[in-house]
């Protein structure tokens, strides 16, 4: 077995140390985290779009027969699915698995943040910017005015929380709602593939109903209750942040209830036809 020269080993270790210093001092240095994470989010969207296009071209029988705009939406939903899996998992961790926002720690929880929590929000900002750009560029093919409002409000609130470090707990509580996005996208994929009458479509519809009820109705109520219990802290935030904590979730909650009504109506129709 051939032995690697000592000089080569030392050179590799040197490059490794320099790489670690680069990451620590620049990529993940506190002042650069917001900007690098946004850029990373945008680049991740591009990669997700291209991979969705590549994989679908080889493994999907439906994809080759789609129109140009349908392919764009197909790939775009690949982006939103990847983002949803990433940010909902991170949100669940910070809200329920981490002690970063625990009441047992000293200090006001509305001003707490960490490099990881800031980085995660930055990636999400990059996604909202990318997706909103595509929606506006191809408007209204990828979504109507409700999507523009949703992304504008969400992106603004997430960006503010990321740059200021304020109310990151409540931002992550709202972002847990992204857990419903993969199911919504699967519904669209199944419909586009002509599988609207399949058992998979029915099961997915039930999952959407349950996930939406928990993540976009019940959890929003819990968030408002949490704000009520910690109002003495929330009122100490900057006026704009204070407005975002109440305004953005309120608008999104109303939109969630309107969409939830459509989900219930659609599920009732599907179940009625199957009798």
What is the helix/strand order?
Answer: HHHHHHHHHH
The averaged pLDDT comes out at 90
Q: Largest sheet at a glance?
A: none
Output the structural class.
Answer: mainly alpha
Beta-strand residue percentage: under 5%
> Roughly how much helix do the residues carry, as a percent range?
over 70%
Instruction: Write down the overall geometry.
Output: globular
Q: Compute the separation of the termini in Å.
A: 70 Å
The value of Rg in angstroms is: 22 Å
Number of helices: 10
In terms of per-residue confidence, which ranges show pLDDT below 50 for 5 or more consecutive residues?
none
Describe the structure.
With 275 residues, this protein is mostly helical. It is 77% helix and 0% strand. It is built from ten helices and no strands. Helix 8 packs antiparallel against helix 10. It is globular, with a radius of gyration of 22 Å. The protein starts with 5 loop residues before the first helix and ends with a helix. The model has no long low-confidence stretch (mean pLDDT 90).
């Amino acid at each position: 077995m051939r032995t690697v020269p000592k000089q080569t080993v030392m050179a590799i270790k040197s490059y490794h140390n320099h790489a670690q210093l680069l990451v620590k001092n620049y990529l993940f240095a506190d002042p650069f985290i917001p900007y690098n994470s946004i850029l990373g989010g945008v680049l991740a969207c591009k990669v997700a779009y291209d991979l969705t296009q590549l994989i679908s071209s080889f493994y999907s029988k439906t994809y080759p027969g789609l129109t140009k705009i349908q392919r764009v939406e197909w790939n775009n939903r690949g982006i939103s699915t990847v983002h949803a899996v990433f940010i909902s998992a991170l949100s669940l961790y910070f809200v329920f698995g981490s002690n970063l926002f625990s009441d047992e720690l000293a200090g006001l929880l509305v001003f707490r943040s960490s490099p990881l929590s800031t980085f995660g929000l930055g990636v999400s900002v990059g996604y909202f910017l990318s997706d909103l750009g595509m929606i506006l560029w191809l408007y209204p093919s990828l979504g109507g005015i409700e999507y523009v409002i949703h992304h504008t409000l969400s992106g603004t609130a997430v960006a503010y929380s990321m740059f200021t470090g304020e109310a990151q707990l409540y931002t992550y509580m709202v972002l847990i709602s992204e857990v419903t996005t993969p199911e919504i996208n699967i519904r669209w994929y199944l419909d586009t593939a002509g599988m609207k009458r399949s058992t998979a479509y029915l099961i997915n519809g039930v999952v959407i109903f349950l996930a939406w009820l928990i993540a976009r109705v019940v959890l929003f109520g819990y968030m408002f209750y949490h704000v009520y219990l910690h109002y003495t802290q929330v009122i100490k935030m900057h006026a704009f942040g204070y407005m975002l904590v109440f305004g953005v979730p309120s608008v999104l909650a109303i939109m969630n209830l309107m969409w939830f009504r459509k989900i219930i109506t659609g599920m009732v129709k599907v179940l009625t036809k199957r009798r």
